[in-house]
Amino acid sequence: MKSRLFLVCLVLVFFVQVGVAKNRITVAVIGHKPPRVEADAAGQDIAEKMIKFWQREFAQVLPDRPDLIVVPEACDRPRGLSREQQFAYYRVRGTKVRDYFASVARENRCYVVYPAVRRMEDGSWRNSSVLLDRQGRIAGIYNKNHPTIGEMDAGIRCGKEITVVQCDFGRVGFAICFDLNFDEIRLQYKKARPDIILFSSVYHGGLMQSYWAYSTRSFFVGAVANTPSTIINPLGEIVASSTNYFDFAVASINLDSRLVHLDYNWDKLRAMKKKYGPRVTISDPGYLGAVLISSEHDSLSIEDMIREFDIEQLDAYFTRSLQYRLKPGNME
Predict the structure, then answer these.
(1) Beta-strand (E) ranges in 217-256?
(2) Residues 308, 217 share a domain
(3) Residue range 177-203: average pLDDT?
(4) Which end is more exposed in the chain, N or C (fewer Cβ atoms within 10 Å of the end residue's Cβ)?
(5) Which of 254, 276, 311 is the last residue before a domain boundary?
(6) In this structure, is residue 93 part of a structural domain?
(7) Which one, of 292, 294, 296, lies nearest residue 283 by Cα?
(8) Is 13 inside any structural domain?
């Protein structure tokens, strides 16, 4: 009995030391507008209606046991109210809907994004994304850096910093709606390198979604109200999308992935694939010259494989190309 217990403990210690290289998580994205309410509805009644609405929406994705749920911008902003009536409702609502979202996160052991207009202690307003962790606690808050002119005229102030939060599966950054149009914030995330960009919006952004994913080398989860909501990989490819029939999408994504250019890596990638077979994937979107390599190995990360085969990553190659351009004799 003692020897068997010792063997079990030894196995556990081994896996703690080695770790699991695969970093797959299940992501759910929901893209539905909040319901319409009567103009004379009481604030508390509106908040209850928002909670019931999101109970139905969450019920669609919770059976998949997601690690992360993302919903659209201003997720508890009712339709049918004037701007003044909306803000009156926000004052009455307080944290009631956020507290419900926190209970979903806690009861289902998942991260949930609660995007909403928030009143600050000084009485000013922000358009924010609040990330709730698996215990329902606030893990981080991002304030929209680029509200529209109309939002600013209504009293919503601009955030001035990006937000990157360390989760138990990786690092996430945020953007909201109009932010997608501005290089300033995108370039900050390009430098910060989160694993995922969480985008809550009422505006889709079209090609900008894929460009943000590729530019920041991140997965991009875009929850957009009543418009296709998508999960996009760092190549800019759509992994999963809501449809005209279903307002949600769920997908498993592998964060243990890196972008590499094909130049000078062809033989190394072939050798890596020959050795590790199905335990490494190489995804080629075509025409780009870059591929996404991902580890499916139980104990080797993609960084381990990159080191083993001396594979040059995408940004390192671009940097080397810029430096090489400046060598004597290479410039006109």
Answers:
(1) 219-224, 230-232, 238-241, 248-254
(2) no
(3) 98
(4) C
(5) 254
(6) yes
(7) 292
(8) no
What the block records as the tokens of 222 is: 């875009």
Tell me which DSSP letter residue 278 carries: G
Q: What is the pLDDT of residue 22?
A: 60
CA distance 121 to 131: 19
Joined tokens for residue 238: 């759509």
Please name the residue that has the structure tokens 């006109």: 332
Domain housing 242: 18-254
Left (φ > 0), alpha (ψ -120 to 50) or beta: where does 217 sit? Answer: left
Task: Note whether 73 and 200 are within 8 A (CB).
Answer: yes
Enumerate the H helices of the chain as residue ranges. 2-18, 43-61, 83-93, 96-108, 149-153, 183-192, 207-216, 266-276, 302-309, 314-325
pLDDT, tens digit (0-9, with 9 covering 90-100), for 72-128: 999 999 999 999 999 999 999 999 999 999 999 999 999 999 999 999 999 999 999
Residue 158 shares a structural domain with residue 292:
no
Angle between helices 183-192 and 207-216 (to 10 degrees): 30
Chosen domain end from 254, 271, 294: 254
Tokens, residue 262: 């094909």
